[in-house]
Amino acid sequence: MAEFRVFIRGRVQGGQIGTFRDLGRRMTGFVREDEPGTVAYGWFVSDDGRFVTEDGYAEDAVRHTHGQRSETGFPRRVPGIARCRTCRSAG
Length: 91
Description:
Layout: E1 4-12, H1 17-34, E2 38-45, E3 50-57, H2 60-63, H3 74-81, E4 82-90
Antiparallel strand pairs: 1-3, 1-4, 2-3
């Protein structure tokens, strides 16, 4: 079993930092409660809107189920509030 991690960096669009932080809190809570194969998860955003997210999974297969049952609307909402600049994976 190999751990797999994903790091995404970008910038939150103007006036959306509060929305981004709220979405991050909701997703983090959901992941802690409902995704036992996720071993690391966090959203970090500076006051000027730069952000990094970290997802860590016990194995690559767990990554494919991430957020499938989420009620946050994450996949639909992020493009409207943030721009991803880089995505890196390891593992």
